[in-house]
Amino acid sequence: MGNNPQTIKKGVFIKMRVTQSMLSSNMLLNLNRSYGKMSKLQDQINSGSKITRPSDDPVVAVNGMGYRRDLAKVEQYTRNMITASNWLDSSDESLNQVGEQMKRVRELVIQAANDTSTPEEREKIKMEIDQIRQQIQDVGNTNIGGSYLFSGTNTNQPLFTPAAGGGKEINPALNAPNEAVNIEIYDGIQIQVNTPGKDLFQSIDDMMGKISDLLGDPNKTGQEIGDMLGGVSSSSTSDDITTMHNKILEAQADVGARQNRIEMMENRLGIREVSVTKQLRDTESVDYSKAITEMVTNESIHQAALSVGAKIIQQTLVDFIR
Amino acid sequence: MRSTFMGLEASKRGLFTQQTALYTTGHNISNANSLGYSRQRVNMQATPGFPTAGLNQPFYPGHLGTGVETGSIQRIRDEFIDRQYRQETNKFGYWESRTKAISQMEDIINEPSEFGLDKAFEQFWKGLEDVGNKPADAAARKVAIGRAKHLALSFNTMDTQLKTIQGNLGKELGVSTTQINTILKEIAAVNKQIQEVEPNGYVPNDLYDVRDVLVDKLNEYIPVSIERVPSGGLASKVAEGSLKITFKGTDGVVRNLVDGKDFAQFTAMGTNGSKVTGDDITNLFSELQLTDIESLEDHEAGTVTSSQAAIGQQDFEASKGKLLSLINSYGYQSTGGIKGYYPETLEKLDQLANAFIQEFNTLHANGYTLEEKDANGNIINASTNGGTFFVGTGAGGIQLNDAIENNVNLLAASSGVTQEGDGKHAYELANMQHKLYASIGNATMQSFYQGIVGKIGVDGEEALRLAATHESQRLTVSNNRDSMSSVSLDEEMTNMITFQQAYNANARMITVVDETLDKIINGMGRVGL
């Protein structure tokens, strides 16, 4: 059996003449290939990526680029959304403050709308009303990260500026009407993050002025002052406290709705980030258990090749004849 | 009657012949590791018997053997395996060189990575989004503009590096032509030596080996056809003659490269009429000019002027020889315009850069810049439409406009006049990344670039695979050749013992004859002494 050439290689009937140079060139090529394989595996294990150059696997390379771009987009939109949330949270907080002030104004007006209150008492109430008016103006000038919240797109301009005749007035430099400040939260989807404050604060400020004037006039009756409370259909005017308070609540509700939208969008982006990251990993990342197993297998094959090769190429007939 | 000393003569021949064989074995062992060496064999043959045929031949019962002689010393070689080997060398030469060219390109584009052009694009779009988030923020603007500059620089660097490699390929093309010329000259010189000795009956085995190595090398560069031309005179029947080497183009024209001691010389000519040297990459390959075949003396005197038909890129058989691969990589002028791996990739990059410059500038002009104020807050420049953002053309020329680099307010981020808080236009600019543009085949900027990278990947993969395949095949053929021609030390040792014993036996024979002669000369006629 051992001498039958057919058992060496199927289909070979003639014994091939084998020389030392064939053995060594075969051995060299095989060792080279083995080194090549191990170097590739080493690259994979070290970099954690299946491929290090496009020709390793063009499909993986191109798909990987696409996924990485998606991931970058998701990251960016997440960042945009943080800015948007900042704007909306600050607007909400500011409007809330204005609402609280309105409640105080209502209390004060109720207190003053009483024919028994003396002019001195009214004077005190007027002083507090003027203080509140200034506070509301300050809220109108809220600035986050260098941007005035309620100045529309003129974010470098405060909403209220000192007026020529003392006090403060709405900044005449502002564009009319206030434009929306938008932030992009997804491909081509933009969300308005500001609450245009010019009209809202103008009317509140005007009303505060009016209340202050009424309180300063000793001839006004309690009835006339009480009319400012609003909420009664017969006496309601468009610039009473109830209307203003409602306007503020409306603006707050609007901000709240937008906050909700952003939260939903954040969730969606989070899910997208997870799925894109997974796709990227599935495409590009090396399967460590597989790579290491292959590496170990290759190592033993390589060692076997080395030791067998070393034994074969060492010996010739020269070693045995004298 | 036969001679008294005939036995001595026969054994002497035996001694000499075995000695020749033993020396040849020694020659084989010495050259066991010489490149291209083929083992040699002494063809022994019996000398004509006694008596020889003739009118005066004595009558003799039977035909007495007279010993051995060396018929010839022949190298063991198979011409057909050589032919196979050279075909594989052609293909391997082509794909190996192509693999190198593409892998250098891969090194430059450096994808997928965190540092490539794709990343530069990505960073730029992100920068613009950040400007959209905070349009009045000088820091955000500065970052975006810095990234625009990085993007332009990425284009520039890639362009310069690709052109450097292209230049190197051109240089290699020029050098390869010189190497081919040297090989042709050497083959002609070996042919000349062979032509001189063969008619005298010699068989210059070692010269054949040298010549075969040269032909192998030549085939790495270009595919050639080989024909043996017998030397005439008293040439041995195992003599191989001189070689005639020709190149047959796909146009059917046969060009003579070497014929006996005459040889032709190549010059790689460029499109602008001078040699391709790689120093000027606009000088693309146009044709290989070929001189008439001439002797070394004429070549050195420079007297030959007429030329054979030039070889254009289209005259090469596809995928054969390193020279063709270098031409294909470096670039050449064809009837369909400029072709070649490097020029075409560079052109694609230019196309991308130009589309980007034009589309970005057009869109940028629709937006509004930030108004400028002096230290006292007074407006000195109201916001205007955006100006030119990128200047220059092509991947090599794209640059950020200096004006914008010097004044970040000139980035048109807003969609209306004096609206510093409006970043809609910055988003608009960032959204260019999703838009398809007709000038780059209805693709987005990055998917077009992805296409370039994908093509390099696919071509690189193909080249690698084919280079490996042809390397294996060449090894198989090379093993076949080694099996036929290379020296086996075991075999030589066995031969050594065979020839040594034969030599010893011949010597012993001489002793025997000596003893018989001694008997005749010293012992006869002395009866009773």
List strands and helices in order, with pairings:
The complex is a heterodimer of chains A (322) and B (529).
Chain A (H helix, E strand, L loop, with lengths): L19 H28 L10 H55 L6 H22 L2 E2 L2 E2 L11 E3 L5 E3 L11 E5 L2 E4 L5 H19 L5 H5 L14 H44 L3 H27 L8
Antiparallel strand pairs in A: 1-2, 3-4, 5-6
Chain B lengths: L5 H25 L9 E7 L21 E8 L3 H31 L7 H17 L4 H60 L7 H17 L3 E5 L12 E7 L5 E6 L2 E2 L2 E5 L14 E7 L4 H6 L5 E5 L10 H9 L1 E3 L2 E3 L1 H24 L7 E2 L5 E3 L8 E2 L2 H4 L1 E2 L1 H5 L17 H7 L14 H41 L3 H35 L6
Antiparallel strand pairs in B: 1-2, 3-4, 4-5, 5-6, 7-8, 8-9, 10-11, 12-13, 14-15
Helix pairs in contact in B: 1-13, 2-4, 2-5, 2-7, 2-12, 3-4, 3-11, 4-5, 4-7, 4-8, 8-12
In brief:
Chain A is mainly alpha-helical and about 325 residues long. Chain A has helices at about 20-45, 60-110, 120-140, 200-215, 220-225, 240-285, 290-315; strands at about 145, 145-150, 160, 170, 180-185, 190. In chain A, α1 (about 20-45) runs antiparallel to α7 (about 290-315) and α3 (about 120-140) runs antiparallel to α4.
Structural features, described:
- The complex is a heterodimer of chains A (322) and B (529).
- In chain A, α1 runs antiparallel to α7 (288-314).
- Chain A has 2 domains: 20-49 and 286-322; 61-280, Up-down Bundle (f41 fragment of flagellin, N-terminal domain).
- In chain A, strands 1-2 form a two-stranded antiparallel ribbon. A two-stranded antiparallel sheet of chain A has the order 3-4. A two-stranded antiparallel ribbon of chain A has the order 5-6.
- By secondary structure, chain A is mostly helical.
- The longest helix of chain A has 55 residues, at 58-112.
- Chain A has 7 helices and 6 strands.
- By secondary structure, chain B is of the alpha+beta class.
- Chain B is 53% helix and 13% strand.
- In chain B, the strands form 6 sheets. Chain B has a 4-stranded antiparallel sheet with strand order 3-4-5-6.
- The longest helix of chain B has 60 residues, at 138-197.
- Chain B is elongated and about 155 Å long.
- The mean pLDDT of chain B is 91.
- The chains are: A mainly alpha (322), B alpha+beta (529).
- Chains A and B meet through α1, α2 and β5 of A and α2, α3, α11, α12 and α13 of B.
